[in-house]
Amino acid sequence: MKPRPPVMRTKRRYILARILPYGMVVDQKGVYLSVIEAATSLFGDAAVGLAQPAVVFCDGGYAVVRCRRGTEKEIATALATVTAFGDERAALRTVAVSGTIHALRRRIKPICPLSGAGEAKIGENCFTVYRYPRQKVDLVEKGIKHQKPLFFTEADLEER
């Protein structure tokens, strides 16, 4: 069977969404189910059926969601209402919308530990330093499964 010519194909848009918290490992099916549930609760089954949302890529802290052209604003709104993937609390934040996946992959910024100063020692505790977009820095204690918040005051900064 011959493929449809370009003028007869449905136009698609792709939404790049960042998965929060950073470093969370999720599967594509879990993201898809959360997106569909959020969109259905906001707009109903008929509108979601017309938008045809689908998660086409999910890796490295980002997800790419496909939808029909003209419905990208509604799907982006639904992405903002996602609060969990299965039993794990999480959120999706829209980064960009494009007509091709290739253009969105260029917008993905990898999240990795700082080069050179990847570890810090405060008192007796060792921490791994992670830098994220918009100058956010997290310190994660080594050997512990869950993150423990660590706050600095100006007095702590002046001591160093």
Report on the structure:
Helix 1 crosses helix 2 and helix 1 crosses helix 3. The strands form 3 sheets. A 4-stranded antiparallel beta sheet has the order 2-3-1-6. Strands 7, 8, 9 and 10 form a 4-stranded antiparallel beta sheet that branches. It has a two-stranded antiparallel sheet with strand order 4-5. It has 2 domains: 100 residues, Ribonuclease P, Pop5 subunit (Alpha-Beta Plaits, 2-Layer Sandwich), CATH 3.30.70.3250; 48 residues, no CATH class. It has 160 residues and is α+β, with helices and mostly antiparallel strands. The protein contains 5 helices and 10 strands. The mean pLDDT is 83. It starts with 11 loop residues before the first strand and ends with a helix. It is elongated, with a radius of gyration of 20 Å.
Write the layout of secondary structure elements.
Layout: E1 12-20, H1 28-43, H2 45-51, E2 54-59, E3 62-68, H3 72-80, E4 84-85, E5 88-89, E6 91-98, H4 101-105, E7 112-113, E8 119-122, E9 125-131, E10 137-141, H5 154-159
Antiparallel strand pairs: 1-3, 1-6, 2-3, 4-5, 7-9, 8-9, 9-10
Short characterization:
With 160 residues, this protein is an alpha+beta fold. Helix content is 27%, strand content 32%.
Percent in strands: 25-35%
Quickly give the CATH architecture of the largest domain: 2-Layer Sandwich
- Describe the global form: elongated
What is the alpha-carbon Rg in Å? 20 Å
Q: Helicity level, as a percent range? A: 25-40%
Give me the secondary-structure category. alpha+beta
CATH C-level category of the largest domain: Alpha Beta
Q: Count of DSSP helices?
A: 5
The major beta sheet can be summarized as: 4 strands, antiparallel
Distance between the termini: 70 Å
Strand order of the largest sheet: 2-3-1-6
Question: How many extended strands?
Answer: 10
Give the count of structural domains: 2
CATH homolog superfamily of the largest domain: Ribonuclease P, Pop5 subunit
Mean pLDDT: 83
Listing every helix as H and every strand as E from the N terminus to the C terminus, the arrangement reads EHHEEHEEEHEEEEH
CATH topology of the largest domain: Alpha-Beta Plaits
